[in-house]
Amino acid sequence: MNNYRLKLIMLVFFGIGQIKLIYAQTDTSETSYHPYIINGWADGSILVVGGVANLLGIRNSQNKAELTLTDIQSLDPGSLTGIDKWALNQSTNNRTNYLNYSEDALVFSVLLPCCLLFDKKIEQDWFDVLILYAETMSISSNIYEWSFLGPTFQNKFRPIVYYTQLNYDQKNAGVNRNSFYSGHTAAAAAATFFIAKVYSDYNPELGDNKYFLYGAAAIPPLIVGYFRVRALQHFPSDVAVGLGVGALVGILVPEFHHIQNSKMSLGLYSTPEATGIAFTWHPNFLN
Predict the structure, then answer these.
(1) Beta bridge partners of 268
(2) Residue 70 CB neighbours (<10 A)
(3) How many other CB atoms are found less than 10 A from the CB of residue 34?
(4) Percent over 90 (pLDDT), the chain
(5) Strand residues in the chain grouped as ranges (E)
(6) Residue 282 included in any domain
(7) Neighbours of 11 (CB within 10 A)
(8) Is residue 189 a contact partner of residue 242, using CB atoms and an 8 Å limit?
(9) pTM value?
């Protein structure tokens, strides 16, 4: 991480400290509305186990075997779908700049949930929301690293490998097997859709207007994904899957902690054909 990104993170957290100080010195009215419930043992265990699994997953995905010359020469651009072929028509000269842009956009997206502290109802539950956010990002990372969709089980070559303008040494890194899916886009989407979900839960008076928030939440991860394609790191389909996975995690983690989720039930069922467990769920964010 370069000095620019480090300064950005320090500036944001300094700002958070100032916000907390202002709130502490202001006589604000308390509200009894707390939409989430946090279980210390359960959520703490998820964070600890998730952190360890994340470290192991990073090692797996980053230590893949280098591409051989045969691997590169056997590629068939004609086998790609129409939308993915767009990734093969980029300039190779600007890929480093776009790579840096994608990193900066990701940092911006991951820090955006700090803006939730400007809502006084959320600020009073800042620790619970922080736990939820840490859990969201941990689960998003582990789905990327350990699910069958991620690079631990997938070995899709990045677009950069297809470019004949680049020499073998510029394309043979093992991480170039990690095109599917875009982890950067997934992380950005998890962060921004988390904002939309949490803000909507604390402000139910929004009604259907909350869907404008969800629409806006798609913009930062789409920007991250665009930069990743221009950096020759991913195909559009990789970005689309990353956006979908991240959005689901950003919404569902807070939803599963919703204390007023009366539309979730677990019970037994019995029919002449079978007996078993029945689980029903009608998520609140669809209401």
Answers:
(1) 277
(2) 7
(3) 14
(4) 65
(5) 264-270, 275-281
(6) yes
(7) 11
(8) yes
(9) 0.80
